[in-house]
Amino acid sequence: MDPIREKILKPSKETRQDILGKTLSYASIFLIVAVVLAIFLFVASKGIATFTENKASLVEFLTGTEWNPGANGPNGKPLVGALPMILGSFGVTFLAALFATPFAIGTALYMTELSSKRSQKFMQSVIELLVGIPSVVYGFIGLTVVVPFVRDHFGGSGYGILSGSFVLFVMVLPTITSMTVDSLRAVPKYYKSASLALGATEWQTIYRVLLRAAMPGIMTAIVFGMARAFGEALAVQMVIGNATLLPESLLSPASTLTSVLTMGIGNTVMGTVSNNALWSLALILLLMSLVFNLAVRFISRKGKM
Amino acid sequence: MKAGKYDLNDTSIMNFDKQKQEIALSTHDLQVYYGNKHAFYDGNLQFERYKITALIGASGSGKSTFLRSLNRMNDDVATVTGEIMYRGIDINSKKINLYEMRKQIGMVFQRPNPFSKSIKENITFALKENGIKDKQKLDEIVEKSLRGAALWDEVKDDLNKSALALSGGQQQRLCIARAIAMGPDILLMDEPCSALDPISTLKVEETMHELKKKYTIIIVTHNMQQASRVSDYTAFFHMGHVIEYGKTKDIFTNPKIQATEDYVSGNFG
Ligand SMILES: Nc1ncnc2c1ncn2[C@@H]1O[C@H](COP(=O)(O)OP(=O)(O)O)[C@@H](O)[C@H]1O
Ligand SMILES: [Mg+2]
């Protein structure tokens, strides 16, 4: 019989490799999905217990301002008003993104469009270094530099949302910058050539062509930065003042979901209302990271058109 | 079915005399769908061994779709139904060994796509993966395939230079050399000259004339002069249908179908 025909009909080393590779990657994805699901279910079951077992009110949780889960309010339900922390988390996140975005885009444009190869490499290393610094170091610098600075120039005790945002600004800057650099680099060279050949200036080209083309990528970068800011605990906790009160201003002590969690989780006993209430906060964090994730997907899908 | 000016069922498809002509590849009721979009209809074509068959037609008429189905490059993007017979096997069946099949049915793409490796490594890469380790043997194949692709004289002193430093025409011939180094039976080429200048195009065409002594070639081309220069048979595609298939000479001088005539004489539309 025709040997080639034989070969085509029979499995070979390659087809077996193929099956092995597929099996391995399915196994990995299965494992990861299982772990993620398990975490989700665990956090959700704990977080929901606050409302089912401990009879706290969900509306109060989302809109109430008094956080003292160990005690009951006048209506006999635990005091789980998480609005101050929710506002604190969103406040530092949006402010940090607001501060960081212009700087990140500027730096990224400098790196991709203006600088020499050597300074590009240098900037790249600086950014990678910034990413690698542990958050406790950022917190420490925040405590010794940012807090006094805010106290002297803006007033108040120095602890508050503004200080938290400043610290997060530095922390998310490298994330947003490096992702923006990637998306600018992914813009095909011929877009730029086409624009310049039409007589557009460098600025017009950057503003009207490059940034437009890279916009979905930049939005994704910002959302990633926000996700990082939203989830950051230690550094924020060190500078925000940790008062579970509705912040009166950006300068008054406040708290975030993460800071309350890190402060509280060691001091409560599993199964108690105080502990379950913290899991509810964790559930919000988890749901928010889901929202960020979906936002990224939505943006990149829109960008495809 | 009628779409636009031409009746898509008014077709003329040549069949070969199996006693006299050896069929290298044939399709039976081949249909290709991209999702819901039916992109290719009812392909019943036979391809004669050691001949060049050209696929012509307007852009979007389904030539690439058809060609890419032949060695299952459409597996991940499209649904392909029907049979593709090669050596008495239906290679459109899920059960066949894709990798062995593609070693027999090679492909050269529209844009030259050499790996960013040296000229030599571009050719030896796949061979080594296939277990050919002997240096002398590899060198032999490199020379033979580069000669086969009419590139040897131009690059024999620079075999270790990056393939990306070659001109577009040279890169394309390197891709042809890379494909024939695998020792295929059939070469599928999708507009291999559309990114090349006229001189490189001529060289690639000369190469094809040499190649058809050993290989069966199916080539998609936009360029009708090219089709008439290089091919023995021509198939005219229109809106996902093969309208006419016959000897190249007949297609260009004496087409049986109005649509073909309009297309080859430039009055199409
Ligand atoms: N990957 C794909 N997904 C969806 N539609 C496709 C895809 N590739 C080609 N098509 C469609 O199939 C039709 C035939 O395309 P193609 O085979 O590339 O034509 P040709 O090579 O003759 O120019 C076109 O309408 C094209 O839009
Ligand atoms: Mg095509």
Automatic annotation (TrEMBL), chain A:
InterPro entries: MetI-like, MetI-like_sf, Phosphate_PstC, Phosphate_Transport_Permease. CDD domains: TM_PBP2. The keyword Glycoprotein does not apply. The chain crosses the membrane at residues 23-44, 82-105, 126-150, 156-176, 209-230, 277-299. It is a multi-pass membrane protein. Signal peptide: none annotated. GO terms for cellular component: plasma membrane. GO terms for biological process: phosphate ion transport. It is found in: Cell membrane. Residues 86-296 form the ABC transmembrane type-1 domain. One of its GO terms (molecular function) is phosphate transmembrane transporter activity. It holds the Pfam family BPD_transp_1. Its main location: membrane. It comes from the Bacteria. The keyword Transport applies. Keywords: Cell membrane, Membrane, Phosphate transport, Transmembrane, Transmembrane helix, Transport. Gene3D superfamilies: MetI-like. Part of the binding-protein-dependent transport system for phosphate; probably responsible for the translocation of the substrate across the membrane. Belongs to the binding-protein-dependent transport system permease family. CysTW subfamily. This is Phosphate transport system permease protein. It comes from Ligilactobacillus apodemi DSM 16634 = JCM 16172.
TrEMBL record, chain B:
Pfam families: ABC_tran. InterPro entries: AAA+_ATPase, ABC_transporter-like_ATP-bd, ABC_transporter-like_CS, P-loop_NTPase, PstB-like. Keywords: ATP-binding, Cell membrane, Membrane, Nucleotide-binding, Phosphate transport, Translocase, Transport. GO terms for molecular function: ATP binding; ATP hydrolysis activity; phosphate transmembrane transporter activity. GO terms for cellular component: membrane. PROSITE patterns: ABC_TRANSPORTER_1, ABC_TRANSPORTER_2. Residues 25-264 form the ABC transporter domain. Transmembrane segments: none annotated. This is Phosphate ABC transporter ATP-binding protein. One of its GO terms (biological process) is phosphate ion transmembrane transport. Coiled coil: none annotated.
